[in-house]
Design a protein that fits this description.
Elements lengths: L6 E6 L3 H4 L2 E2 L5 E5 L6 H8 L4 H4 L4 H13 L5 H10 L4 H19 L10 E3 L6 H5 L8 E10 L5 E2 L2 E2 L3 E6 L10 H13 L8 E18 L4
Helix pairs in contact: 5-6, 6-8
Length: 225
């Protein structure tokens, strides 16, 4: 899918975008997506790798395997890792770890050409679409940053003399909300997600790899629900 010149919106509650902004020779600001450095969940998980409180949700050796998987998206025994994670689902956080590994495994095996949820940047086509996602911001957070981006032709960019990959997937995040721990149900939802199917009430999110030019950034107050 060619997305050059398309306009997208993104909210950043953790400052990851600001930390990864580059400047072109013409003075424009842009970011290069496609690594976990712009993805809050894996970055948060990896930053907690040595945090004993967080690691108490599962045995140390399993947590280390999870962190390694989030880094490399590769496991010598993915079935055992999934089984171990399911055994130690205790709360929202451990349930998300389990779900993300299942979804990523389905992507790798059947949809490897699509961007990974563990290393993409999540975008919306319209600013008002962000309202649903803003509910995920912690109540104690006072402000967040709203970015307006324009997708750029990756053929015009090279990093370390290497071409930049462009890849985009439009998905329905409703398939992520199922709370079942059944591996069969999770894999079925993952297939629907990666196939781009819509549920009855779709919650659209865009997974993106590529170059994004920063058109506008606003610091906004977080209105508590």
């Amino acid at each position: 899918m060619n997305t050059s010149n398309s306009i997208y919106f993104h909210y950043d509650k953790s400052g990851l975008v600001a930390d990864n902004i580059n400047r072109s020779q013409t003075g424009n600001s842009f970011i290069v997506t496609g690594s976990e450095s712009l993805n809050a969940f894996p970055m948060g998980l990896l930053s907690l790798e040595n945090n004993l409180v967080v690691k108490n949700i599962m045995p140390d050796f399993i947590f280390k395997e999870v962190c390694e998987y989030f880094r490399s998206r590769n496991s010598n025994n993915i079935g055992e890792l999934i089984s171990n994670c399911r055994q130690y689902v205790r709360d929202w956080y451990s349930a998300r770890i389990y779900r993300e590994i299942v979804f990523e495994n389905v992507r790798i095996q059947h949809f490897s050409e699509l961007p990974s949820r563990l290393s993409c940047i999540f975008l919306c086509e319209y600013e008002q679409d962000l309202d649903r996602w803003l509910k995920e911001i912690p109540k104690e957070l006072e402000t967040y940053f709203l970015y307006k981006f324009q997708a750029q032709n990756p053929d015009n960019f090279k990093l370390n003399n290497l071409p930049v990959r462009e890849c985009c997937h439009v998905a329905d995040a409703k398939y992520l909300e199922n709370k079942s721990l059944d591996i069969g149900q999770l894999e079925l939802n993952a297939f629907k997600y990666w196939e781009g199917r819509n549920s009855d009430e779709p919650l659209v999110e865009i997974l993106y790899y590529g170059i994004l030019k920063v058109l506008e950034v606003k610091q906004k107050a977080h209105t508590k629900p």
